[in-house]
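Example 3.2
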Amino acid sequence: MSRKDTTSFEKLRQRALEMLDERERTTMDDFNGDMRRLLSELDTYRIELELQNEELRLAQLEQERSQQKYNQLFERGTVAYLSLDDHGRVVRTNPYTASMLGCPRADLLGKPFSRFIHFDDQDTFHLHRRQLKRPGVLATCTLRLRPDDGPPIYVQLDSSVNEGAGENAGGILTTVTDVSQLEEAREELLTLNRELERRVEERTHELQKVLGQLLHSEKLAAIGGLSASIAHELNNPLQGVLNIIKGVGRRGRFDAEDRELMDIAATECRRMRNLLRALQDFNRPTSGIRAPMDLHAVLDSVLLLFGKKFKNSGIVVYRHYADDLPVAYGVGDQIKQVIMNILANSIDACPSGGHITVATHAEKRQVVIDIADTGSGIAPEHRERIFEPFFSTKPEVRGTGLGLSVSYGIIKDHKGTIEVDSRPGEGCRFRILLPLRGPGRKAAPPSG
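Structure, written as tokens:
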């Protein structure tokens, strides 16, 4: 009953008592009339009170149904619900929370919720609570919980201040949503992105390498043309000087010392003439005709020529030839020149002796020649320049810097590739790849 209804009823009751006290001073008719009005008013109020009581009963039933629905949602929900006090202790929770944390529901009540939060995420939870200092604020954060019987799980906390009345007021109402699958998907996406970035970086590196090779090829072609032109201009006067020296030497009378000087001058002229010929051949080493080659026979003939140098340098040569090596097409003397240049470098890299291994095999429609030594190796800053003309780490009296450049031009002219792998102090490995052309045949067995 409302305060207004109670006040009206009391007034009506007081009025009825006053009328009864004065009944002796009134006539019976007057009394009966007043009493009938009073009873009529009382009956009206009684009906009104019954209607109000019915409304209150229906409202109470609706409230009970709402409370029942809320309790069902709270108890049977597939989301964790928590009610925390001002100190962060669990006041109320639902069964799903206990299932998520892997412990009995009773063990949660009265315990600090921070106990179940991953150590590395404690600060995140502390900042989350600080955001809820005033009513009406909804705070959200993502952190990891530590179940008693499993790995950490990622959850999202959505919290607000409890604005209920009475003993329910204060504290924090929190919804805990498992977002582990979303987090796993995010981590997988990050992993895929990192893998994509790695592949893009690798591909970019490969493209840069190819671009460098193309630029290097263009550079070699330009230098080859220039060197051929310079060699042509110098070759004729040099040959004239050499002829004059020879003629003077034949006609003149010189003592032993002057004769030695004349021989030295002629030798240097011939050396310069050979260098100029190498420059002329740089762009197109030779004009030989390509034909089927027995690479094993080619290798054996070059190794035979270097036999004395190997022995004098204390170098042991190992041969590992493929049993069935397809036929390669090329200019035999040019390939010999490439192998000789590489072996000469290997000998110079092993001044105290060592091993040189020569091997062959087929690979993806290509014939591969591997020449590896156990010498001093190539410094990283020199490895990218070894195929440049006139680049050499040897003393001037021992190298001109054209051997590997000419070799590069020969292999390029054969539509092949030449690669090098080396580390200082760990030797050097040259890899020559020549494309197959024509039908394959078994190579001749290695000699020696």
